[in-house]
Every structure is written in structure tokens, then in C-alpha cells.
Write a structure and sequence with these properties.
The structure is a homodimer. Chain A is of the alpha+beta class. In chain A, 39% of the residues lie in helices and 20% in strands. At the A-B interface, β5 and α4 of A face β5 and α4 of B. The structure holds a DNA duplex.
DNA sequence: CGGTCGTTTGATTACGATCAAACGAAGTGG
DNA sequence: CCACTTCGTTTGATCGTAATCAAACGACCG
């Protein structure tokens, strides 16, 4: 069992979109858990698993994915510190997708029942967690649109914009410069392209003066131009969702 | 205000995956609402709208979609009678997508607050509605995979399989024969292809002896073969989700 | 009977996949 | 400290699936 301060990240994340009172915060901090530190590529959940724990991501990055019958991978979402990983499984008995560590990561494992009890005894927290899953669902929808109807440059630019804003919201950098937490192959699996093509498009984004790359570090040279190329609007992220602590306008005009 | 029996469909839908007690059922039936009958293509919600009502679909079909900056449409989901349409907006202030009628449809409009109160005062119902949104999210994930990583035949076959099972679960036919509620153009927008190509693939599915088409009526000639071509597994639909009324195995081995 | 909407078929194009190989950086072991 | 391996990135050449362009056809409707 780790020091409870760790769960503070989770409190902050939920308060980003839903109002909580002190009792609510305390209840979250008091969640029983064991911390687990995992290496990159460790599976936290496998499709078909019976779900018994809810993982709270305390540090590092994690991703959701599925595999097709012939072994192709589709990445479904990327998760950042403070996010609750298994809310999507918490009322469904069998996991329908895999969750795997992207980087080295620390995850607090909370028993399923503790989350159920939390939701029932602290309605504000229940609403906050529910809202959280609704925002995730909104992001899934945007991804359907992204892979379904946008060409490759637009698609990749869109993902870069999304990361910029989400990393900033998570307090992991600003939206003009950040460290991309994945390889080009993983990027390809997130946008439904091949790694080769992703590489070419990243190059083109650089040549067009939209981004600068130095290894995995992404600097957005011209947010407005990138946003236009990306067909990006931040609405689907619901960053200024009512009642949240952070529900003021972001300091820089973003999208 | 319409006769309350109508909402029975919604009760049945929720009970399909979550246990309810008589008081819960009564609370759902007692939901204040006005019925609205709409023509095909009527918008029920527009992206950017402030959400004040939750629509319960009593008859007909409805779909969610988004438009790209250059006017391309991506259909995000199809909804069948008994489904609650605005659960995804119920805690989010601004709608991030459009909801439009596919066919002539009847929708019971329930004020947002009534849904909030229902969830708070009847925890079983709250959990059922939350679970409902989680299953929707699971379907979104499968669609991300479908448009991201599957080729055109697989993609379309997959959609046909999904409809078969969902229509059967909704009591609108069996999984071997059903009426497709959409045009080939709408189909194309659901799977991220062009209408022309959808037409060719449907033809091919017929030639391969997987389906028979008569106008919009689809007959699945060989479920197993179609399922294989479609790379389809019903897991993501969570049809046998715990505690539900219908949580027995389906009568015919399906997937 | 024209008009509209949806389906069907044909011809050509293009975007991204695939195949192949080299390069660079980081880590390992001798 | 330097070979050697491994993993990720980069570049080039060719291929193929689905898009695009174009037009005819069929059904339903007023």
C-alpha cells in the first residue's frame, strides 16, 4: 500500500470536470489499493478477463487495444496519469479489449467492489466517474471519425492536437511542446495506418512548418495551421465541462 | 403525454443487462415525458446544442453522426427502439455530435433533471443506465477497430453481423433475416467507405453465398461463414451481461 | 408521365500498403 | 571500450484496394 497522496492525481482529474466536496475527495483518497509498478508492454488487462480490479494510473502511460483475427492491432485510447483505467469494465463482467503499459508505469489496483461502494455512497463521485466514462466515449467517437473519414495527414495531425491538449490538461507540459509517449508503430496502430506511412507524414508535417521533431519531442510551430490541417476542434474533449475546477478558459486560445 | 406502456421497451432494454426491482421499473415508467413523432432525417440533437432532454426511442431507428470540416459524414452508431439516446449527453453540457432520425420515429422526451433524479433516487436504475453507456462505448471501440484495421468486405460483413444480433436482442427479428434500416450511402458513412464500393461489396457477399438481398431485406445464408469473413465475435456487445433478464445463452449458437 | 432518390455498373485514378533495405541509437556482453 | 544485437526510424520502388468520375437503371411518388 502506497502513500495516499498518490491518489491525489485521480481527485484532480475527476475535479477537472465534476464538482466534488471535501468528503468526496477524502473517500477517493481512502480507497483501498495496492500499487504495482510495471514495465513497458506489460498487460494490465486481457480481452476475456474477468474484471476484479480497477487500475488507477499514477504515473506513466497506458493504452487500450484490440487485435483482429489476422493479428492486426488497433489502439483505442491512450491514458495519462490520474486516469481510471477500468471504469469501462467496472459494470461489465468480461473485458472486451486489452490494456497494456506504454511506458514504465505505476498503477494503484483498487478492488472492483470498492469502486461500486464509492459510487453508491458518494453520489458526486459516482457522477464524476460516470462523466469520465462519457468523455472517454466522446473520444472514441472522435476516433471513429478520425480513422473512418480523414486522410492520413489530417488523421495524424489530429492525434497530435489531441495529445497536446490532453497532456496540458493533465499537467504534463503545454500544448506547444511535449514528449510523444509512443513509437511510430504505435502511432500507426492508433490511426489505422502503416508505420512507414506515419513516418512519411511526420516528415511532411515538419516540411510544412507545422511541427518540429527531435526524437519523440514534438514542438508545435504553428498551432493554428496545425489545427486547420487536423480539422481539429477541442469540443469533443469536454475540457471546459461544467462545475470542474479547471472550467475556466485555457490561457491560450487553442481550438 | 403518451400512454406509459410505451416506456416498457426502455425497461426491457435496461433489464437486458442490469437487474431491476419492481420499484425501479415503476420509476422508469413514471418518467415525465412528451412524445414526439418525427420524419426521416429530422435532427433530434445538433452538435453544439445545450442538452436539456433525454430522448427515449420508442419506435423507428435513429443514428449518431459527425461531419468533418469538408463535409464528410461519419456515422457513429445506430439506435433501435427501447434505447436511451441522450445518456451520452446527460452529464456533458454541450453535444459533441448530431442525432438524426433514420426512419420515421417516435421519441419520448424526458427532461434532463428527471434522468438525474432517477439515477440518484434509484441506484439500480442509475447503474443500469451507466452500464448502458459502457456498452455503447464498447461498441464505439469495436467500430474504431472496424474502420481502422479491417478491409472493406470484412468491415461490411461485420456491420451486418452486429445488426443481426442487436435487432434480435431488441426483438425486431431473428439473426438470420432482417430488414436493414438504411441506404447504401448511410451504410458507407457507417463503415468509412464510398457508396459505390459498398454496393460492390454487398454484391460480392451475395456471390459468395453469405447473404441474400431483396431490397433492404438481408437474409444470412450461412452465419458461420459470414461470421468468419466478418472477423466477428459478439463479445463486445455484452449480450449475456450479468444479472439481466435475458442473460441466458441465445437459443442459436451465434458467435 | 416526368421527377427524384437509391442502386448498379464501368473506366480510371490515387492514396496508402507492401516489400525491401539501410541507418542510427541504445543496450549487452566479451 | 568496442563488437554486436536489437529496436525504431528513414528512404526507395512497386503494388493494390478503394476512391473518383461518369452514366444508366429501377422504384416509388406526386
Amino acid at each position: 500500500v502506497e502513500p495516499a497522496e498518490n491518489l491525489e492525481l485521480v481527485v484532480r482529474k475527476l475535479e477537472g470536470h465534476s464538482p466534488l466536496e471535501e468528503a468526496d475527495r477524502a473517500a477517493i483518497r481512502a480507497l483501498p489499493h495496492v500499487s504495482r509498478t510495471v514495465d513497458p508492454a506489460t498487460y494490465l488487462v486481457r480481452e476475456g478477463d474477468r474484471t476484479e480490479y480497477c487500475g488507477l494510473l499514477l504515473s506513466g502511460f497506458v493504452y487500450r487495444h484490440k487485435l483482429t483475427g489476422n493479428g492486426q492491432r488497433q489502439i483505442l485510447s491512450i491514458h495519462m496519469p490520474g486516469e481510471m483505467l477500468d471504469l469501462h469494465n467496472i459494470f461489465l463482467d468480461i473485458a472486451d479489449h486489452n490494456i497494456q503499459a506504454l511506458s514504465r508505469a505505476v498503477v494503484a489496483m483498487v478492488p472492483r467492489q470498492a469502486i461500486h461502494a464509492l459510487a453508491e455512497n458518494f453520489p458526486n463521485v459516482g457522477r464524476a466517474m460516470w462523466t469520465d466514462t462519457l468523455i472517454d466515449a466522446s473520444i472514441f467517437r472522435e476516433w471513429v471519425m478520425n480513422v473512418g473519414r480523414r486522410d492520413s495527414i489530417t488523421r495524424i495531425a489530429h492525434l497530435l492536437c489531441e495529445f497536446a491538449l490532453r497532456l496540458e490538461a493533465a499537467g504534463l507540459g503545454n500544448h506547444q511542446q511535449y514528449e510523444l509517449p509512443m513509437t511510430q508503430e504505435q502511432l500507426a496502430d492508433a490511426v489505422g495506418l502503416t508505420p512507414v506511412h506515419v513516418n512519411r507524414i511526420l516528415k511532411e508535417l515538419g516540411q510544412r512548418g507545422l511541427i518540429i521533431r527531435d526524437k519523440r519531442a514534438i514542438t508545435i510551430e504553428d498551432w493554428r495551421k496545425l489545427r486547420d490541417v487536423a480539422d481539429f476542434s477541442s469540443r469533443y474533449l469536454h475540457l471546459d465541462q461544467g462545475g470542474g475546477l479547471h472550467s475556466r478558459q485555457p490561457p491560450v486560445p487553442v481550438a
